[in-house]
Amino acid sequence: MSFIMLNLYENRGGAELDPDQAIRKLQDWFPQAVVTPGDQLARSVEHAERFFGERPSQTVDGPERRVLESLRLKATQYGPSFAFRIPLDSGESIEGSARRVDLTFHHGGLLPDGDRERLVEFLKSFGVGRIERSSPDGKATEVIFDNDARE
């Protein structure tokens, strides 16, 4: 699976995305985008709480407690997280998410040049962070544009 992302994690200046605004902007650029309702990170915490029951293990080392603490920390540090899907003319789609520290697009194969260029231009329009993609072999990440380097 290939990806293109706007990465703001530990960027210069400490800028973050507002995921709500990022989704609105996404829908302006890609009106066909379908957004999954709700914060997906909060939903994962709720799911784990239901799965483990009302009272997860009371011991500090309990695996249920470690899982819940990890999910809660992730939701606090990166959330909210909104998932979306953009259908393509080819019948395939791009899946993605918007969080405070990144805006990520995943695709099952090689994106057509026009779709890839449109995604990169959309990500550049935020004016912050690094735009990264998976290498052609999928084994590495390449920075293809660095908004922070322009300062």
What does this structure look like?
By secondary structure, this protein is an alpha+beta fold. The protein has 2 domains: 2-39 and 82-150, Sporulation inhibitor of replication protein SirA (TATA-Binding Protein, 2-Layer Sandwich), CATH 3.30.310; 40-78, no CATH class. Helix content is 34%, strand content 25%. The protein contains 4 helices and 7 strands, in the order βαβααβββαββ. The chain has helices at residues 19-29, 40-52, 63-78, 113-124; strands spanning 2-7, 34-35, 82-87, 93-98, 102-107, 130-134, 141-146. Strands 2-3-4-5-1-6-7 form a 7-stranded antiparallel β-sheet, covered by helices on one side. A hairpin with a 5-residue loop joins β3 and β4. α2 runs antiparallel to α3. The chain is globular and about 55 Å long. The two termini are 32 Å apart.
The total beta strand count reads 7
How many helices? The count is: 4
Distance between the termini: 32 Å
Percent of residues in helices comes to: 25-40%
SSE blueprint and pairings:
Blueprint (H helix, E strand, L loop, with lengths): L1 E6 L11 H11 L4 E2 L4 H13 L10 H16 L3 E6 L5 E6 L3 E6 L5 H12 L5 E5 L6 E6 L5
Antiparallel strand pairs: 1-5, 1-6, 2-3, 3-4, 4-5, 6-7
Helix pairs in contact: 2-3
Task: Describe the structure using short key phrases.
single chain; 151 residues; 7 strands; seven-stranded antiparallel β-sheet
